[in-house]
Amino acid sequence: MTELELKLNCIKDLLAKHHLEALLLQRVSSLAWATCGAASYINTATTNGEASLLITPRGRYLITNNIEAPHYEKEEHLAAQGWEFRVAPWYAANSAVADLTRGLKLAADGPYPGAIDLAGEVARLRANLLPEEGERFRELSRLSAGAMDKAIRSVRPGLSEYEIAAVLGDEVQRLGVQPIVNLIATDDRIFNFRHPLPTDKQLDHYAMLVLCGRKWGLACSVTRLVHFGRLPDDLRRKMEAVARIDAAFISATRPGRTIRQVFQAATDMYRETGFADEWQLHHQGGPAAYEPREFLGTPTVTDLVTVGQAYAWNPSIAGAKSEDTFLVGPDGNEVMTTIPGWPMLSINIDGQTIARPAILEIV
């Protein structure tokens, strides 16, 4: 079966499991998943797009307005993909969902009047990538890593965080990737804020660049750090510790393990490296697909790791962080956002050596 057919079967199985009859997909991420990569947003930060998909026993429909319909037909090719368009004028309400689901038991990928909210289960469908999606994810990750490499190697003291964000955004956008997260911190702000929106502060010695890049609906994550001058011993110790924690995450993220077990392996390493409580100060990441994190890993999540899933764990200790996106394979994990030539730390864990990024020192 094609990628589209497999996804439609997943939707059919989900509805049967809950004894429901129709599914409404409103989220940008859900539409991209169900259409094999189409974009439904105008505002890149929006959760729900300008189009929705409706799957019923009688057919499958794309519901939108007359402004956006030509784009979905001629550029996203969704009519050719078999979606029946239900278009309303931009200034009028679209009654298609009500008309097409009258008398049906409706589910949705988020809140919707009269529908059962299956947001969590739809997110898990999105997280289980098919081989075609894995190939697209590899290309997205390669592009994002290349953009990060160019951007961070061009950073110099005196640049403001706004200017650094502009450099990173430019490198990403020129490759056709959207920087849906572009976080920059310099010097003390790296120690004080885990999600640092860029400011006008100028770089002195130390910078952190965080990117979530999106293409074909998929979103990968990568973080790198650069230090001008010799790295202080305390900061080097923190980076080595966070690299060991990240290696523990990656090593434990194998098919058949629960996310709870993976999380436990990482929190054990937090404790072993002398930073037992740091995991409580920032989320640690989780499965990545059509959202930067389809859901977060926590000590209580019992979902199983499976072949084909992608993960982006992001352990941090005040002043240091490690983050890449990797694909779970049958025989090992493939780090997709590796940057060739980047300085690496070799971590020996569970009988294997896992390479994690070091801080780039420019002396």
Structure, explained:
This protein is α+β, with helices and mostly antiparallel strands and 363 residues long. Helix content is 33%, strand content 26%. The chain contains 10 helices and 18 strands. The strands form 5 sheets. It has a 6-stranded mixed sheet. The protein has a 4-stranded mixed sheet with strand order 7-8-9-18. Strands 10-11-14-15 form a 4-stranded antiparallel sheet. A hairpin with a 2-residue loop joins strand 2 (48-56) and strand 3 (59-65). The termini are far apart. The model has no long low-confidence stretch (mean pLDDT 98).
For this entry, give a set of tags.
363 residues; alpha+beta; Creatine Amidinohydrolase, Chain A, domain 1; 2 domains; 26% strand
